[in-house]
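Q: My labmate handed me this sequence with no annotations at all. I'd like to see what the chain might look like in three dimensions before we decide whether it's worth expressing. Could you predict it?
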Amino acid sequence: MAVATGGLRYELVEGWEKLPESFEFGYTHGIEVDHADRVYVLHTKSPNLVVFERDGRFVAGYNVEGIGSGAHGFYLHRESDGAEYLYITDTNAATVIKTTLQGEVVLRLNPPILPDVYVEGKAYKPTDLAVAPNGDIFVTDGYGQNWIHHYSAAGEYLRSFGGTGKEPGQLKCPHGISVKLTGAEPELYVADRGNNRFQVFTLNGEHKRFIDHNMDKPCSFYIRDGLTYFPDLNSRITIFNDEDQFVTHLGEDQQAYKQQGWPNLPKSYYRPGRFSSPHGLCVDSHGDIYVAEWISDGRLTKLKRLS
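A: Here is what I predict for the chain of 307 residues:
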């Protein structure tokens, strides 16, 4: 597959990842890349953290303590001293942790303090997180009560904002979150998936604007080199430029999400270079795109940047 839209061209790298025969994927929810272009995959089976070289060679598998069937949010952050850490959420266990690249837990966040929100029958189910330049952590409760929770770098609870609705500042499945640094000030980009839009906030939780064109069910973000990439759960990858203008869709299949049984379709349905339920993505230093799909036995795709 080659795509040439908006000046971007990609080629599908078929059979990219070399997973050992003794390993098998569960739902592949998250995928990240480090400074050396090693690729990290979070999924729901054991070992739940799997590492590959850029060329797909298997490096290692680790079991992250406290992360199980709800393995979901996944973010790799490089700190000012160059150290890199993974941040992970588990929606079923209501867990948010910071780990080394080998999955060793170094920080665990306590659940948010909102006694009027988290009452019986209304659970906290964190779906994603982002880290600000000062180390503050923002967690989205996308599968619970539609709030964003703000913590210090040390894990101290600071504030919450959001709540269910469609009005400015309100959310419906805030599924993903990122900090965008290319403007005059850092901004929080939230994939307000249930409302089929992005919502942009200040780091203090003040609503700034909506972005709602050329998207259907945006899941998360990856921002690199003046481009914003996001998986649209309804079967495509989308790229915006730094001004949030549409550049292209990749691997679009507008029939996949309409199939009975989706997202777990018969293997005969899946086609190389066409997405069914893209959930997470990352981009390496060469501009290559790696995509993880929400499928019960996992699916990874690599698109090599040509120009």
